[in-house]
Design goal:
Layout lengths: L9 E2 L5 E2 L9 E6 L5 H8 L10 E3 L5 E3 L6 E2 L17 E6 L13 H18 L6 E3 H4 L13 H6 L4 E3 L17 H13 L11 H14 L10 H12 L3 E3 L3
Parallel strand pairs: 1-5, 3-7, 3-8, 4-7
Antiparallel strand pairs: 2-6, 4-5, 9-10
Helix pairs in contact: 5-7
């Protein structure tokens, strides 16, 4: 047993953790959905040795917050992934699991009381660790093609407006040229460079390959959720440039 790092959390220790590697300290917050039918089922699994997974926190449907791993320790929540060229995301991040069955059950809405709890917990974590808004990420951001949570219905814009995360008002979906499969050339190179600069793990090939489509889709899932199709339309590219160049960005950075 340990004392919670967040004053409002209950403690239910998980055996699934280790030391942060290479002297890493938390500078990133990763948000997940559990993808399980109930929050209690997720808690039981995250605290079961045989699962070999864990998270620092779980936020239940009713807003209850449970801490399972100390923030000083390395929880096993992120798996394979990277951000801004750094892998072993578990060693430099804190993970929050949010009870929601996810896409397999139609991605139900997140209750207001649950989102309020995520806000309070996330703001507290970011303040204590000096985590900037642009390093509050979804599991799908650091593991595109492998994970899709917390999903396109997660209220990123609301969180950023209330002091947690990095967002820009969504540019309306409109017509015009779209980059997609089979496209290549300078426009694709420019898109890939912008995505990589923001932090996504993407190679600069100049070809709109499958990985590029997946990364664009996960970018849309977080920052342009009105249409998640993996095609780089004007709205998607404009949103990406605004995020990079701080044009009307909502950012909770300290």
């Amino acid at each position: 047993m340990f004392d919670p790092d967040f004053a409002g959390a209950q403690v239910c220790p998980s055996p699934n953790f280790g030391e942060r590697r290479g002297g890493e300290v938390p500078d990133t917050l990763i948000l997940h959905y559990t993808g399980m039918e109930t929050g209690q089922g997720a808690q039981d699994w995250l605290c079961a040795r045989e699962s070999e997974v864990s998270s620092h926190y779980l936020v239940h449907e009713d807003g209850r917050i449970v801490q399972m791993v100390r923030e000083a320790d390395r929880a096993w929540h992120a798996g394979r992934g990277s951000w801004q060229g750094r892998d072993d995301v578990n060693s430099y991040s804190i993970g929050i699991e949010i009870a929601n069955p996810g896409h397999l059950q139609g991605l139900p809405d997140f209750p207001d009381i649950q989102i309020q709890a995520v806000l309070e917990l996330g703001r507290d974590i970011c303040k204590r660790h000096g985590i900037p808004g642009k390093r509050v990420l979804g599991h799908s951001d650091i593991a595109p093609g492998r994970k899709v949570d917390p999903g396109e219905k997660f209220p990123w814009e609301r969180l950023a407006a209330d002091g947690l995360g990095h967002f820009v008002a969504t540019t309306p979906v409109s017509g015009g040229r779209r980059l997609g499969p089979d496209d290549d050339g300078p426009a694709v190179v420019a898109l890939q460079r912008l995505l990589a600069r923001y932090g996504y793990g993407i190679a600069i090939t100049g070809i709109y390959d499958k990985l590029t489509q997946i990364v664009v889709q996960e970018f849309q899932r977080h920052f342009r959720p009105l249409e998640v199709d993996g095609l780089a339309d004007v709205a998607t590219c404009t949103t990406l440039r605004k995020l990079l160049y701080n044009k009307s960005v909502i950012d909770s950075s300290p």
